[in-house]
Specification:
With 451 residues, the chain is of the alpha/beta class. The protein has 15 helices and 13 strands. The strands form three sheets. Strands 3-2-1-4-5-6 form a six-stranded parallel beta sheet, sandwiched between helices. A five-stranded parallel beta sheet has the order 10-9-11-12-13, covered by helices on one side. Helix 7 links the parallel strand 7 and strand 8. The longest helix is centred in the middle third of the chain and has 31 residues.
Length: 451
């Protein structure tokens, strides 16, 4: 830990006092699934908020009180704007108006499965062009341990200003779970790490106004906390998917096994199988650590094995679908009509980043099938990096006639808004990867194959 100077202590004391009085402007850089709820939380706490995004369409939508995220309705956006304390902009010259700048930008993997921190670098460079004394800069994006120090600090100090003396830097990983109605930004504790006491005190003072804060000793520890959380999930998801495959061979329903096992009040946490991993965290974050570990001469065999297990799940699902079509319908995948139910990576959201549904559609088309999709939250497929060829596809309505026109329906995402009894009643065959059809009438169950 670095030593805190007298000037840094004075900067910190003044900043903390202003935070307690709500006399700060909180800058949120990136108004997506993480940044927008964060802005809402700080507005609710009484702060002024400067929302920044390079996407003009987001800025324009927010300005007129409209949303672009399904689980955040227009009414919440309108309430945010009605406070009179929210400014949204794409003008980087407004950044000096913020007393804190919280970076909520993507950290994907490149084609070589290595960290792509270009968004962090570009955003930090933008901040550096306008950095002023006494500002607090916090990275919230998930990344490998050392990013805040080696990348963010290094870029900001090219200005001649010094972290911990002239300005402050900290790390606090986002913990958003889009679509989860049980938790919000203000009910999820925030881990906060900084390399000096003064900087940590400043970051704590900001976040403790909206939620409980969990301080840790430095930035790299906070970065490691986030990776540990997601690696834990990856490994357990991989385990339960492997168990599903094993139990299927024994004619055992893995979902029934899990439901019974979770009645144990200790020593077990329920995870559920699916058609693969999706979203902005679990398919990506663990491999930030595997990359960094190699730089230190260490291996992460357990993490990489878990990654291999979940990566092959879409192919296992397609093989199960092909076998079911052959056995039940005496048809091959080639030339068949297949409907994928659910395009989002998880239920009840409109987020399709890294969605296994995209990979399933791609593999089915490679086998010669005609594939459509239905998703109540994604009426049409936007441009995306992994499968740009799907852009413009439209969601199919689940009418009786439409369902009967397909040879098979593949349930990939179990949205609550979908009537699965209706699907099973009218479709010739249903492949269920989420146990979504568990409550259908007994007389229809012969049409469902779990995969």
């Amino acid at each position: 830990m670095l030593t805190t100077t007298k000037s840094a202590k004075a900067m910190s004391r003044a900043y903390v006092e202003r935070a307690h009085k709500r006399d700060l402007t909180i800058g949120i850089m990136g108004l997506g699934y993480v940044g927008l709820p964060l802005a809402e939380a700080f507005l609710s706490a009484g702060f002024r908020v400067l929302g920044f995004d390079i996407d003009e369409t987001k800025v324009s939508a927010l300005t007129v009180g409209k949303t672009y995220i399904a689980h955040i309705p227009d009414a919440r956006i309108a309430t945010m704007m009605a406070t009179g304390r929210l400014e949204v902009t794409s003008d980087e010259t407004r950044l000096p108006a913020a007393d804190a700048l919280l970076m909520c930008v993507p950290t994907p993997l490149n084609i070589h499965r290595e960290p792509d921190i270009s968004y962090v670098e570009k955003t930090t460079q933008m901040i550096a062009r306008h950095l002023r004394p006494a500002q607090l800069v916090i990275l919230e994006s998930t990344t490998y341990p050392g990013t805040s120090d080696e990348v963010v600090r290094t870029i900001l100090e090219t200005t001649g200003l010094k972290a911990g003396a002239d300005f402050a830097i900290a790390y606090s990983p986002e913990r958003e779970d889009p679509g989860n109605i049980d938790f919000s930004t203000s009910s999820i504790p925030k881990v906060v790490g900084a390399d000096t006491d003064a900087e940590r005190d400043m970051a704590i003072a900001v976040y403790e106004t909206i939620t409980k804060v969990v301080p840790v000793s430095d930035m790299k520890t906070a970065e490691a906390v986030k990776l540990t959380e997601n690696i834990f999930r990856l490994i357990n998801i991989a385990l339960v998917n492997e168990l599903k495959t094993v139990f299927q061979g024994m004619d055992i329903d893995v979902w029934e096994v899990i439901d019974a096992a979770k009645t144990k009040p200790f020593g077990f946490m329920a995870f559920y199988p699916g058609p693969g991993l999706g979203g902005h965290c679990i398919p990506i974050d663990p491999f930030y650590l595997t990359w960094k570990a190699r730089a230190h001469g260490e291996t992460t065999r357990f993490i990489e094995l878990a990654g291999d297990v979940v990566t092959r799940m879409p192919r296992i699902v397609i093989e199960a679908l092909a076998e079911a079509m052959s056995g039940h319908l005496k048809k091959s995948v080639a030339g068949s009509r297949i409907l994928v139910s659910g395009l989002a990576y998880k239920k009840n959201v409109d987020d399709m980043r890294e969605s296994p549904s995209l990979h399933l559609i791609h593999m089915l088309r490679e086998r010669g099938a005609h594939v459509d999709y239905h998703d109540p939250h994604i009426p049409s497929v936007p441009m995306n990096r992994d499968h740009p060829e799907f852009a413009g596809m439209k969601s199919v309505d689940l009418t009786e006639a439409a369902l009967q026109s397909y040879d098979c329906v593949l349930i990939s995402t179990d949205h609550d808004a979908v009537d699965y009894t209706n699907i099973v009643r009218h479709a010739p065959l249903v492949i269920d990867t989420r146990n979504a059809a568990k409550d259908i009438p007994a007389e229809l169950r012969h049409k469902v194959v779990k995969a």
